[in-house]
Amino acid sequence: MTTLLKLLAGGVTTPALAEVAQAESATASELAERVLAGKVVIPAGNCGRHVRATGIGAGLRTKVNANIGASSEFFSEEAELEKLAAAAGAGADTVMDLSSGGGVAFLRRRLLAATSMPFGTVPIYEAASLARDRSGSIVSMTRDDLLSVVESQAGDGVDFMTIHAGLTRSALEQLEAEGRIMDVVSRGGAFMIAWMVHHDRENPFYEDFDLLLDILARFDVTVSLGDGLRPGCLADASDRAQFAELVTLGNLARQAREAGVQAMIEGPGHVPLGEIEANVQMAKKLAEGAPFYVLGPLVTDVAPGYDHITAAIGGALAGAAGADYLCYVTPSEHLGLPKAEDVRLGVIASRIAAHAADIAKGVSGALDWDVRMAAARKSLDWQKQINLSIDPVTAGAIYNGRRSADVPGCSMCGELCAMKIVSEHLGIKAGEISGC
Ligand code: SF4
């Protein structure tokens, strides 16, 4: 088996590349150049599962990921399948299974069989969960356990994996010197630090990175280089520990590409609004333009219950500054395992952020959507407005639940609808606007 990078290097264009090029208004050769330069990834493992062709990176529409998955405290196959359906229904581009307890492999296979979205995982979660089941402690996982979980997940058809290979002992020293308030909030980062400290060893994913790349190349899995030291609160943002890890991630991304493995870089987290642009620029520079995948970022720490909004504010700014891929955040972030409705709200919020960013970035066709909506609003074409909404169900429910049958406008101004009055006085009737 070969990888997309190796095929493109040999001048072979794949159907997935052609499909992404068409969807993103790029030519296949332009897109192939960006993939070869490491600026775009098209995550799709080669295990025979049908994967919707999705490009992430420079010049492309900003993509949205939804995290689902069970925990050791709450495991329900039915609930996770419901969340998967909610993510797909709300328009997520990709999904990640972050299960860390119960039947992790069983659930992953069920979810994989139920979706064609590019599918991601964090293998250390399963390795830690297996170690805990076996011996009662996550630190009993071995280096071989980690690689064997990667291989098993790749064989199941996973398309991209978060690997915390940049959290080295040197970065850990920086962390200890920083005196952060929250130290480490990444689950994978915490597992890795516990293992490194307990065994007094270097990060096994870092030491065995070549072996890891051999497995990922065999299955054409894209590596998403995780930021185990991402800041978990605004006060910890943009410190030496975060950037020490980022420098390593940039080096590992290059090493991955050289091995024929597509790579992207993960980023924060919690970041003050004024530091987001610099964070994106730094990541892009250090990783030579690799796709940048941010979690949020959340722009304040004080809105539990509304963190889909704090993340969407940060996501819009990060996307406008060049981030390529937004990991959604749900209203239940920091409070509990999300339910299907939380997933739906999280995806919608991140899609709004991504679209706003695409307009700012000048992504082809992004503004056209808003122009069509403006024309529909001007012509008081309610069905068209609802159909064009990012969430037609909610828009339709609000309009239809409050409308008055006698007036062309909505129940906000009724007969005094500005759109209607101005159209009449300018000699244009509502519904006759050109292009509506
Ligand atoms: S009634 Fe008011 S809010 Fe509703 S469409 Fe007309 S101007 Fe807009």
What can you see in these coordinates?
The protein is an alpha/beta fold. It folds into 2 domains: 61-361, Alpha-Beta Barrel (TIM Barrel), CATH 3.20.20; 367-425, no CATH class. 51% of the residues lie in helices and 8% in strands. The chain has 19 helices and 10 strands. It has helices spanning 4-9, 15-23, 28-36, 77-90, 104-113, 123-135, 143-156, 169-178, 187-199, 204-207, 209-219, 240-258, 273-286, 307-321, 340-361, 366-378, 382-388, 392-402, 418-425; strands at residues 40-41, 56-57, 63-68, 94-97, 119-121, 160-163, 222-225, 263-267, 292-295, 325-327. An 8-stranded parallel β-barrel has the order 3-4-5-6-7-8-9-10, surrounded by 6 helices. Strands 1-2 form a two-stranded antiparallel ribbon. α7 runs parallel beside α11. The longest helix has 22 residues, at 340-361. The mean pLDDT is 94. The structure holds iron/sulfur cluster.
Brief overview:
With 436 residues, the protein is an alpha/beta fold. It has helices at residues 4-9, 15-23, 28-36, 77-90, 104-113, 123-135, 143-156, 169-178, 187-199, 204-207, 209-219, 240-258, 273-286, 307-321, 340-361, 366-378, 382-388, 392-402, 418-425, and strands at 40-41, 56-57, 63-68, 94-97, 119-121, 160-163, 222-225, 263-267, 292-295, 325-327.
Features:
436 residues; TIM Barrel; 2 domains; two-stranded antiparallel ribbon; 10 strands; 51% helix; binds iron/sulfur cluster
- What is the number of domains? 2
The backbone outline, from C-alpha atoms, is globular
Content of β-strand: 5-15%
The major beta sheet can be summarized as: 8 strands, parallel, barrel
Number of strands: 10
Secondary structure class reads alpha/beta
Distance between the termini: 50 Å
Mean of pLDDT = 94
Give the spatial strand order of the biggest sheet. Answer: 3-4-5-6-7-8-9-10
**Rg calculated over all Cα atoms:** 23 Å
